[in-house]
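Structural prep section.
Before we set up the soaks we want a predicted structure of the protein with magnesium ion in place, mainly to decide which crystallisation condition to try first. Input record follows.
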Amino acid sequence: MMKACILDRDATLIDVVRDDESGVITTAFHPAHVRILPGVVEGLRILRDDGYIFAVASNQPGPAKGHFRVEAVERANAALVDLLRAEGIEIAHVECCFHHPEGTPQGDPSLIGECACRKPKPGLLLKLQSRLGFDPKASWMVGDNEGDVRAGAAAGLKTGLIFALNRCELCPLRAGVSSLERIRPDVRPDVHGANLVEVANQIVAFA
Ligand SMILES: [Mg+2]
Ligand SMILES: [Zn+2]
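Run finished without errors. Recording the tokens verbatim:
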């Protein structure tokens, strides 16, 4: 049966977007924003050569908060898929949660409220599993925060955590994996590393 590596998007595959003028940090909502992080292409090649297929599972609450439109996120996602394809990496599907429990008055009201797909819930991963037909027991969820690890475990996948130091001001784990142990002692990734190469090598070696 097929094995998959499901990847978080922001701060896992691509960098967050910083506006140097205002200091505002956001997530990519334009193709020009998409900057693949160091180690991503090499890490994905290691996993590809070990037989993994790839998909992306991403929380994108921006449209529910009125920050930008769903279509803008989808264009940025398409740019990411194209950039990776040019490196010989195929992304089978990108699944996003566009919801947010509270939203804002400017947000799309149809996207505001509880849903079954926003990580740490497993909905995105369950959708990908039924769409792509991979074996959950042989598959992994890799991301940069607690919600990725919890969603992966809830969907029956093994989990990898990337916690690069000094990389992302948004990342609650920027102090390292020990910060996760403080925040959520019950959340334990199966492997962790400072970038996708380290995590990929551990996934390939995982017994
Ligand atoms: Mg992330
Ligand atoms: Zn959702």
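Observations: Residues 8, 10-12, 143-145 surround magnesium ion (ligand 1) (CB under 6 Å).
Flagged for discussion at group meeting.
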